[in-house]
Amino acid sequence: MLLRPATADDVPALLDIHNDAVRRLAAIWTDKQETLAERQAWFHGRTGAGLPVIVAVDTAGTILGYGSYGPFRAKEGYRLTMEHSVYVTDAAQGQGVGKALLQRLIDEAKASGVHVLVGAIDAENATSIALHARLGFETTGRLPQVGFKFGRWLDLVLMTLILDAAPAPAAGTAV
Ligand SMILES: CC(C)(COP(=O)(O)OP(=O)(O)OC[C@H]1O[C@@H](n2cnc3c(N)ncnc32)[C@H](O)[C@@H]1OP(=O)(O)O)[C@@H](O)C(=O)NCCC(=O)NCCS
C-alpha cells in the first residue's frame, strides 16, 4: 500500500467511496448523494487552500481509501484546529489502511502548524473510535441526539489530539 496526495483524476473514486458511505453508513449524516461536480469542488477547495487530500492505493493503483482535513469552524480563532475524516473501502477495511491514512494526516497537520485535530464520530462507530484512540486521540465530548439518520437519533462523539506545545497566538491576532 502506498499513500500519496490525491489528484483530480482520483475524484471519481473519492465520489464513489463518499456516496457508498452516504447510502449505507451512519458515518455521514446525510442521505444526499453528491454529484461529480460537487466532489470536484470539494477537492479543489481543499487542495487550493493547501489542505491535504491523501489517498491510499494498492500495487495495482486501486484506491483503498482517503483522508483529508479542513477548518473545524469558520471564525478566525479556530484557525489552528482542523476536522479530519478518513474513509476506507469495504474490501480494504481492517488491514491498517485507516491507521496509515490517519497517521499521515497527523504528520501533515503537525508539519503545517495545526494545533488540534478533531474527529467528529458517530457514537456507535466503534471501529473509528478504536482507531482514533489507538493513535492517541482522547474522547473529549459527547453530544446526545444531535443528528439523525435511518430513523434514529444519533450521538456525536468528539475526539481530539493536541499536536504541539505551541503557545497560543498573541492577543489581537484572532481576526
Ligand atoms: C473507521 C475506518 C476508517 C477504520 O479504518 P480501517 O482501515 O478499517 O482500520 P485499520 O485496519 O487501520 O485499524 C486501525 C485500528 O482500528 C481498530 N479497529 C479496526 N477494525 C476494528 C474492528 N472491526 N473493531 C474494533 N476495532 C477495530 C484497531 O484498534 C486498529 O488498530 P490495531 O490493528 O493496531 O489494533 C474504516 O473502517 C472505515 O472507513 N469505515 C467506514 C467509514 C467510517 O466509519 N469512517 C470514519 C468516519 S469518523
Automatic annotation (TrEMBL):
Gene3D superfamilies: 3.40.630.30. InterPro entries: Acyl_CoA_acyltransferase (IPR016181), GNAT_dom (IPR000182). SUPFAM superfamilies: Acyl-CoA N-acyltransferases (Nat). One of its GO terms (molecular function) is acyltransferase activity, transferring groups other than amino-acyl groups. It holds the Pfam family Acetyltransf_1. It comes from the Bacteria. Keywords: Acyltransferase, Transferase. It catalyses: L-methionine sulfoximine + acetyl-CoA = N-acetyl-L-methionine sulfoximine + CoA + H(+); L-methionine sulfone + acetyl-CoA = N-acetyl-L-methionine sulfone + CoA + H(+). PANTHER family: N-ACETYLTRANSFERASE (PTHR43072), UPF0039 PROTEIN C11D3.02C (PTHR43072:SF23). This is GNAT family N-acetyltransferase. It comes from Pannonibacter tanglangensis.
